[in-house]
Specification:
With 439 residues, the chain is mainly α. It starts with a helix and ends in a 9-residue tail after the last helix.
């Protein structure tokens, strides 16, 4: 990395560390140390299958502490392995931080990461090459918890839990490499699709050995005022920091971000200045919060997890213009189907459907809207084969939708810049702010 990239990476590491520590401090403001400790223990020994809202299971303070710890562990692993804080790293931090509100905790991630480390030993490759895949693989952390704490912890369950972690961590680097080719760049959650396929094999095998997996519903309500204040505050701070960081250049670079398709390989951190990315992350967050509140939903562990994922991918793939059409597709689906947009599964889909943002970016608003509409139904049933143990269920469903949509759209629709993007490009060109390298 050149000095500028190194400095940019250090700044992002520092900012994320401040965020994580701040969450820990909020926990102590909300609850006493003993209450936090009891709540964190309850989180650690829970099975974590969908939908386990840690706020409903334990408390807000304990949940914030779990998020703080998992986020700090994530950036420590990345930093220790000399991973630059680029767009994909920030997206992964967003996923880890978000899902530690529901499903991931400071206990159930380690056996899977150990499996990834064993794979690196087998391949004679440094752990840094696969640490990101290892972190994404913790989507199957509920398998670890469900087997480890099966029948109040016994030798068989512990052994099976360790073996499952090793298998998941070992296989995922190979599997994710192949599934990436199937999605044709129309889904941002390749890892979610890959772990979904793996879960479709592992869960039936574990069930045939006598282990049981059942979906649950822990869904907290009544915290919108408190949690929206925190989230809106976070988003506003990020936007302000963006302008402070790069001034008016941040605004022009943000407009350039809005012109991008959302291709999974488009790293906004390396393509644009940090200020523009901070603004994009903040605006993505505000959009996510607004959709939850406007639809009469609840801000809780799962919905906040979705919002943080949308924000994290604001560094790689997602922006206002390519996520809103897909989200509107899910929103409208709630009026034409037998389920309500207020249902927990629909509220989660409202955030994670944005994995299909590239559909909008490549093919336009209408295909993006239709993709969201279809995704809203697919995600309701896609995970039946693995009984809620894949936290990235929307990533699995989005992968299915993207494969089908590519085969159709590539034959009937020519990828092109849709009108809003064209207008922004003309504005940028008028002021000498757009070149072919910005396409």
């Amino acid at each position: 990395m050149d000095s500028l990239t190194e400095k940019k990476s250090r700044d992002w590491y520092f900012g994320i560390m401040v965020y994580a520590v701040f969450l820990g401090l909020i926990a102590f403001v909300l609850e006493s140390p003993s209450e936090i400790a009891r709540g964190c223990l309850k989180i650690a020994i829970s099975k974590g299958v969908l939908i386990t809202d840690y706020i409903a299971l334990s408390s807000i303070g304990a949940t914030f502490m779990n998020v703080s710890i998992v986020t700090l562990l994530t950036i420590t692993l990345l930093f220790y392995n000399d991973i630059p804080m680029d767009g994909s790293s920030i997206a992964i931090v967003g996923l880890m931080s978000g899902f530690s509100f529901f499903g991931k905790n400071f206990f159930n991630m380690w056996f899977i990461l150990l499996g990834t480390y064993v794979y690196c030993l087998y391949k004679k490759q440094p752990f840094k090459q696969y640490v990101k895949v290892g972190l994404i693989s913790t989507s199957l952390a509920p398998i670890i918890s469900s087997t480890f704490f099966y029948n109040n912890v016994n030798a068989e369950g512990v052994i099976v839990s360790v073996i499952c972690g090793l298998v998941i961590g070992f296989i995922m680097p190979m599997l994710a490499e192949h599934t990436d080719r199937l999605l044709h760049n129309l889904s941002l959650y390749n890892g979610g699709f890959a772990v979904g396929l793996l879960a479709m094999m592992m869960v039936p095998m574990l069930k045939s050995m006598g282990f049981s997996f059942n979906t649950v519903l822990y869904w907290s309500t009544g915290n919108n005022a408190l949690l929206s204040s925190w989230l809106y505050g976070l988003c506003v701070v990020l936007i302000i920091l963006g302008f402070v960081s790069d001034g008016k250049e941040a605004f022009w670079e943000y407009l350039k971000i809005l012109c991008r398709t959302g291709h999974p390989k488009e790293d906004f951190i390396t393509l644009h200045n940090s200020g523009a990315v901070l603004i994009n992350i903040g605006i993505n967050g505000i959009i996510g919060i607004a959709f939850i509140l406007i639809t009469g939903g609840e801000l809780n562990g799962p919905t906040i997890g979705g919002i943080l994922a949308v924000m994290g991918f604001g560094a790689r793939g997602k922006h206002a213009f390519n996520i809103v059409p897909v989200m509107l597709g899910v929103f409208v689906a709630g009026f034409s189907k037998f389920w309500s947009i207020k249902d927990p599964a629909a509220q989660i889909a409202l955030m994670f459907c944005t994995t299909l943002a590239p559909v909008t970016g490549f093919y336009g608003v209408i295909p993006g809207f239709i993709a969201g509409y279809v995704h809203a139904s697919v995600v309701q049933y896609a995970g039946l084969g693995y009984s809620g143990v894949n936290l990235y269920n929307n990533g699995f469903a989005g992968g299915i939708v993207s494969i089908v949509f590519f085969s159709v759209l590539s034959n009937f629709v020519i990828p092109r810049t849709y009108p809003v993007n064209a207008i922004i490009k003309q504005i940028l060109k008028k002021y000498g702010r757009f070149t072919e390298t910005d396409s």
